């Protein structure tokens, strides 16, 4: 046998054990995907909240507590039982959500509710046909096709960003809290429903806050929340930031933030140049963006790498491409992010990680000033 033939035979060798192990993994993936859908339903219907507040109860008692149809609740409880999420006592016919499970699945845990993230999977499923079309013909899926995206993002940031703002995020910039207390001008570019900026406006009444977002629905809800909170120091505006590099008012703000809002822009480089243009020379730009590398192989150990790449492919990348944009995607990575920040005119960039947050990097960017 020649060396070439031997090498080909070695490559073609079929490992039965490896095939069996991979088939078992695929079955696990299918089961996990199904449970993710049911977890989303349990969150949206309040079933996990009802179970967390109850001891062992029958399907009828659980349905009555949540105000739902018993037959559907019973079948859902079947999935939760065989998925080892809910415990079932066949002798009494009761179901029970262990407190250790409730800690990750109910609204009693405002910062650790994994069920919030489960909602992304069925949402992405609604655009699967559109995405398949894009695979075959190019282009993208526009933002308006993602019906509940802003709602889910607001809930996501409501437990990951908002609770951490005062204690963990603002201290990343030395002296920032003092400046906010004294009174400065703040912009949140791509503010969504305005959860972060409304929280800041309530905390620092001497500062003035502005929020821009392309979604009129999101801006309407941001204004409504501002009114409910009594925030008179915040302004929200529907605005497309594609041309922000040309239309931003120079040096209009002392502090600018983006929360997971750069990579899905049609023209992220233009947005960043606009942020630099709008920032005072002694101002600070704080960017939250997805933690990852610009090289796929370096993300293999990321705890939610598959989820983030799926979100990138089926939302972040495609909404940008739908606008004729660059399609960076959520997993553009730290290396490329630093390139973009530097090209936009930020010369002093610190990259931070927070102990409670394995999903994001926090970039503190200061303007680069021309040398004399």
Automatic annotation (TrEMBL):
Span of domain Methyltransferase: 181-291
Domain S-adenosylmethionine-dependent methyltransferase Rv2258c-like winged HTH positions: 33-107
Keyword field: Methyltransferase, Transferase
Gene Ontology terms: biological process: methylation
Enzyme Commission number: 2.1.1.-
An MF annotation (GO) of this entry: methyltransferase activity
Pfam families for this protein: Methyltransf_31, WHD_Rv2258c
Record InterPro entries: Methyltranfer_dom, SAM-binding_MTase, SAM-dependent_MTases_sf, WH-like_DNA-bd_sf, WH_DNA-bd_sf, WHD_Rv2258c
Keyword Methyltransferase set for record: yes
Broad EC category: transferase
The protein's name: Class I SAM-dependent methyltransferase
Species for this entry: Halomonas kalidii
């Amino acid at each position: 046998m020649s060396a070439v033939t031997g090498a080909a035979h070695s490559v073609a060798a079929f490992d039965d054990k490896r095939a069996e192990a991979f088939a078992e993994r695929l079955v696990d993936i299918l089961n996990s995907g199904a449970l993710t859908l049911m977890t989303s339903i349990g969150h949206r219907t309040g079933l996990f909240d009802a179970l967390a507040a109850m001891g062992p109860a029958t399907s009828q008692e659980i349905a009555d507590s949540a105000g739902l149809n018993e037959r559907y609740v019973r079948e859902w409880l079947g999935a939760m039982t065989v998925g080892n999420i809910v415990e079932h006592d066949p002798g009494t016919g009761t179901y029970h959500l262990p407190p250790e499970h409730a800690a990750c699945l109910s609204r009693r845990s405002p910062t650790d509710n994994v069920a919030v993230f489960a909602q992304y999977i069925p949402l992405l499923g609604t655009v699967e046909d559109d995405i398949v079309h894009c695979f075959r013909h190019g282009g993208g899926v526009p933002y308006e096709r993602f019906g509940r995206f802003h709602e889910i993002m607001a809930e996501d940031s409501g437990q990951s960003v908002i609770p951490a703002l005062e204690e963990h995020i603002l201290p990343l910039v030395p002296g920032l809290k003092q400046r906010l207390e004294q009174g400065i001008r703040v912009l949140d570019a791509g503010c969504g429903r305005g959860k972060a900026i409304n929280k800041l406006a309530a905390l620092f009444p001497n500062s003035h806050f502005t929020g821009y977002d392309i979604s009129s629905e999101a801006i309407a809800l941001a204004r409504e929340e501002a009114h409910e909170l009594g925030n008179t120091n915040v302004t929200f505006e529907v605005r497309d930031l594609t041309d922000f590099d040309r239309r931003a008012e120079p040096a209009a703000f002392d502090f600018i933030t983006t929360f997971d809002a750069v990579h899905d822009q049609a023209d992220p480089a233009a947005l960043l140049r606009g942020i630099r243009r709008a920032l005072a020379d002694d101002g600070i730009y704080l960017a939250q963006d997805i933690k990852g590398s610009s090289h796929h192989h370096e993300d293999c150990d990321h705890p939610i790498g598959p989820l983030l790449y799926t979100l990138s492919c089926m939302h972040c990348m495609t909404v940008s491409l739908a606008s004729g944009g660059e399609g960076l995607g959520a997993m553009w990575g730290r290396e490329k992010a630093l390139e973009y920040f530097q090209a936009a005119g930020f010369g002093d960039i610190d990259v931070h990680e927070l102990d409670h947050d394995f999903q994001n990097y926090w970039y503190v960017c200061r303007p680069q000033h021309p040398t004399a």
